[in-house]
Design brief:
single chain; alpha/beta; Rossmann fold; three-stranded antiparallel β-sheet; 8 helices; about 25% strand
Length: about 250
């Protein structure tokens, strides 16, 4: 069974705006699939539908019955009055997990994202990149099998973003995660993904799928390789075609 399967899913808001035209999407277990497209193309709406935070207006949404979902938002959204360990432990506290077990799982989640030494500091004492690491740790503490990420690194500088992309790939390997990732960045999409789903706006719809096939390790050398450049070119062309389609629809 796939981790995610959407069939003819669409979303229309109460004001009549169609956010998503009927679309199909399938994500296999263990894949990293990225949703790439301009603002307003429905990427976040689609992610929220998969998470169950927003209800589809029509269509079928299927998430594997054994999947446990973790969600990482665009902002770290850490509680400023709680130390980092308490922020990470929050989902377990809400679920009634015993404090000793919750503390141990929070410590392990922080270790996985390289923040093991920062458990007792305040969020304000962390850099932006470290705050996002803490947010990822909070998603991982519930031991998810499916991680949904809504452009988590978009506000970070390129060096920090690259470092966190590497961390995400490492954690994905260690925990055998399935990841559905939202980004505006072509380069990030190429670097992370097994497949990239290209979306267009007005209304949101899928216009292309690009498989990122390579035998090269995902590292700094891959970022400057001819394979990387070829995939980036393909995605750029798909996005330009999607923009032309949207402009013609408005003409």
């Amino acid at each position: 069974m796939s981790a995610i399967e959407l069939r003819a899913v669409e979303k229309t808001w109460e004001n009549g705006v169609q956010a998503l035209r009927p679309l199909d999407l399938r994500v296999e277990r263990g894949e990293i699939v990225t949703l790439l497209g301009p603002s307003g193309c429905g990427k976040s709406s689609l992610l929220n539908i998969v998470a169950g935070l927003t209800e589809a207006s029509a269509g079928d949404v299927s998430v594997g019955p054994d999947e446990r979902i973790g969600f990482v938002f665009q902002q770290a959204t850490l509680m400023p009055w709680a130390r980092v360990a308490a922020n990470v432990r929050l989902p377990l506290d809400l679920a009634g997990v015993a404090r000793a077990e919750a503390n141990a799982r929070a410590a392990e989640a922080l270790r996985r994202v390289g923040l093991g030494a920062f458990a007792e500091v305040w969020p304000r004492e962390l850099s932006g990149g470290m705050q996002m690491r803490a947010s990822i740790a909070r998603a991982l503490v519930t031991e998810p099998t499916l991680l949904l990420m809504d452009e988590p690194f978009g506000a970070l500088d390129e060096i920090t973003r690259n470092r966190l992309d590497d961390e995400l790939l490492r954690v994905r390997r260690e925990q055998q995660l399935t990841v559905l990732f939202v980004t505006h960045s072509i380069h990030e999409a190429v670097y992370l993904s097994d497949r990239v789903v290209v979306m267009a706006a007005r209304p949101g719809r899928v216009v292309a799928e690009v498989a990122i096939t390579t035998d090269e390790p995902r590292d700094d050398a891959f970022r400057v390789s001819t394979t990387f450049a070829r995939h980036a070119r393909d995605l750029q062309q798909a996005l330009l075609a999607a923009a032309r389609d949207a402009d013609e629809a408005l003409a």
